[in-house]
Write a structure and sequence with these properties.
Distance between the termini: 47 Å
Number of strands: 8
Number of domains: 1
Structural class: mainly beta
Helix content: under 10%
Shape: elongated
CATH topology: Jelly Rolls
CATH architecture: Sandwich
């Protein structure tokens, strides 16, 4: 099996997209080390908030007021990651969901409300306009 250095191809293409020689395509890609998704960190949010799935795979949001996750336009089918919700020093912040966010049983998110509580919610994009939220993992210390 031959190897191609994708970084070299990207640098030669100069566009950030690899230009493979002779019409070469990739049917499978094996990674030999861990790949970390980008994280939107240290973001304080209140009111309507739209997550940017093009720029980030994971999100760490400090709630400084009640939040509504607005429907995004940047998600990609198959994309997955997590959203960390951190209550500020006041706590009791709630999170409402746009119509593209789906929870099991359509019950919404019930997050911890204590001041400084940390909850983790996994997600996967199952189709265009459909972001499935997993069960929240509550009250990390």
């Amino acid at each position: 099996m031959s190897q191609i250095n994708v970084n070299t191809l990207v640098d030669e293409a100069g566009t950030g997209s690899p230009a493979f020689p002779n019409g070469l395509t990739i049917d499978a890609l094996t990674l030999e080390s861990a790949v970390a998704g980008t994280v939107d960190t240290n973001v304080t949010v209140t009111g309507s908030t739209t997550l940017d799935f093009t720029t980030n795979q994971n999100f760490v949001l400090t709630l400084t007021g009640d939040v509504t996750l607005a429907n995004p336009t940047t998600e990609q089918v198959g994309q997955s990651g997590f959203i960390v919700f951190i209550q500020d020093g006041t706590g009791s912040r709630t999170v409402s969901l746009g119509t593209e966010y789906k929870t099991a049983g359509a019950v919404g998110l019930a997050l911890s409300t204590d001041a400084s509580a940390i909850d983790v919610v996994p997600y996967i994009v199952s189709a265009s306009g459909s972001i499935l939220l997993g069960a929240p993992q509550l009250a990390f210390a």
